[in-house]
Amino acid sequence: MTDAAWQWDETLYAGSASHYSVGRMPYPPGLADAVATALGLDGTGRLLDVGCGPGSLTLLLAPLFEAAVGVDADRDMLVEAGRRAREVGLTSVEWRHLRAEELPADLGTFRVVTFAQSFHWMDRPLVAGRVRGMLVPGGAWVHVHANTHQGVTGDDPLPYPRPPWRQIDDLVASYLGPVRRAGQGWLPAGTPGGEDEIMRQAGFADPTQLTIDQGMVVERRVEEVMSAVFSLSSSAPHLFGGRLPAFESDLRQLLETAARDGLFAERRREVAASIWRT
């Protein structure tokens, strides 16, 4: 990691799982279409989603395959993923509780392996090497890059006010301090970069880039923005300890004051995906 003192621990997203469905904007259906077209998917093969969280990407892509496996190190995330799968009647997905560093974990081989907003939390050289060995000939690694908790910043007119993200960040900092929190540690320099070089060293060729430009304006309720805040590792509920009720009250007051009729509006961000092949 960028900060050598930071070490992963199982509290990274403690208490956040139930907030994902409410606070995170879903990946667009166009992402599945773009991936299917780029890889010539035809309903065969298996999908592995690493760091799947509550299944946001897994459930979108699973119908493109015979079967899928979602793995995550947070049990609560997998409980939420299972609930969401049952909600939509999807039975082709198996959920496994394990860290990416434990792969291949006798899971077999896969046509596609996906990562979405998760790779930066891992021992990336180790995971990249192990995942490469889990791909069938002609298989692909798909890394989805997206910010799904927050829309595009700007001053173009919207039907409702934008959420006051700067004031939200200031409020979080007033409770947790100015240095970004992550589990039991801190990330003063943020999460690491340099993914491309790690992938090349693991034996992957330069990627194909996909961009799904959304641009639509969505309305968001106060409760949705509150859940978006609690879905982040840097403001996960456990970090506030006994001050959680006070923070939640202050956050609600901030949002209710800034909203109009209890609503905000945001323009959704584009979603990008890098497709790496061996």
UniProtKB/TrEMBL annotation:
Outline the extent of the Methyltransferase domain.
48-139
Gene3D superfamilies, alphabetized: Vaccinia Virus protein VP39
| Example of a GO MF term | methyltransferase activity
InterPro entries attached to this UniProt entry: Diverse_substrate_MTase, Methyltransf_25, SAM-dependent_MTases_sf
A UniProt-annotated Pfam family:
Methyltransf_25
Q: Answer yes or no on keyword Transmembrane helix.
A: no
The record ties this protein, via PANTHER family, to:
METHYLTRANSF_11 DOMAIN-CONTAINING PROTEIN, METHYLTRANSFERASE TYPE 11 DOMAIN-CONTAINING PROTEIN
Q: Does the keyword Aminoacyl-tRNA synthetase apply?
A: no
What name appears for this protein in its UniProt entry? Answer: Class I SAM-dependent methyltransferase
BP terms from Gene Ontology? methylation
Top enzyme class, one word, equals: transferase
- Which keywords belong to this entry? Methyltransferase, Transferase
* EC number of this enzyme: 2.1.-.-
Q: What is the lineage of its organism?
A: Bacteria, Bacillati, Actinomycetota, Actinomycetes, Micromonosporales
Q: Which domain of life is it from?
A: Bacteria
